[in-house]
Amino acid sequence: MTVGHTGGEHTGAGGVGLELRDLRADCGSCFALCCVALPFSRSADFAVDKDAGRPCHNLQDDFRCGIHRHLREEGFAGCTVFDCFGAGQKVSQVTFGGHDWRSEPGTAGRMFAVFPVVRQLHELLWYLTEALTLPAAAPVREEVLRARDEIDALTRLGPEELAGLDVAERRGRVNPLLLRVSELVREPARAGGQGGRDRKKDRRGADLIGARLRGADLYGADLRGAYLIGADLRGADLRLADLIGADLRGADLSGADLTGSVFLTQFQLNAARGDAATRIPPGLTRPAHWSATATAPARRAPQGGKQAQDRTRAEGRAARGGARRDAPAGRRGGRPKGRGRDGK
Known about the structure:
- It is built from 8 helices and 2 strands.
- The protein is mostly helical.
- The chain has 2 domains: 179 residues; 132 residues, Pectate Lyase C-like, CATH 2.160.20.80.
- It has a two-stranded antiparallel ribbon.
- Helix 2 packs across helix 3, helix 3 packs antiparallel against helix 4 and helix 4 packs antiparallel against helix 6.
- The longest helix is centred in the middle third of the chain and has 24 residues.
- The two termini are 28 Å apart.
- The relative contact order is 0.13.
- This is Pentapeptide repeat-containing protein.
């Protein structure tokens, strides 16, 4: 079987089965690594500053969050967005064999250093595993399978080996393959009227902060690494769009259609806004903070609304930290490092 948005398992050439649940966070099997290993920057996402390696003041002795049910109200919306892709339980239960950093303080430094590494590897596993479910990617299936099995093997290395791993180099190997998968999947939409490429939909790495894209035809668009912070995407057609690493923080997806979108992750949905009419791929979960009802279709903002748009863009630039990226890595700005748009 294959793993994708719908679940299941894919057994690689080496006979190792990778199940979808291995790429989903299981906080009950983790030693609260995201609450300790990663730094927080005081912002709209986090109410306080926190250094890497220092436990969040809300963390309890049993590794549970003391304000879990009220994170957004207490100013910790960033915690509700974060997704470790199952790296937390892998490091806690596999890499360190179930020995936690509180009962064995000597493991703390190594554990906290390894966690961001494994998270990035697990994110790559998510994309490669999804690629194995896409019929259009059949021409590169064996390459994807080999790459997936190689990355999976790396996640099972010891602490010292993981800490010294050059993740950027590994991403560099995988990214061209993911791009090829994206091109194959989007080929029907990429062809223009005369069989040429529709350049209007090539928005890779584009600055679309606060952009007014309500009802936009983004079918099959290349939005890899695009900055869509606070963008108005209400009712937009995002079917078959490549969203790997797109920054959707605060973007309004109410009524948008994301079915069939390529490399969309749960943390991207969590960071955005939506409603009951937003269509998402099977296997991903509608965020709890989204509106339970379908909002009324909004009228296009008049051109005179430029001042408000400029404000949104300025806020978005401050949040993104000024860095552009094109492949899986960590988020800048208000998010804790290693918590964000890994996908670029």
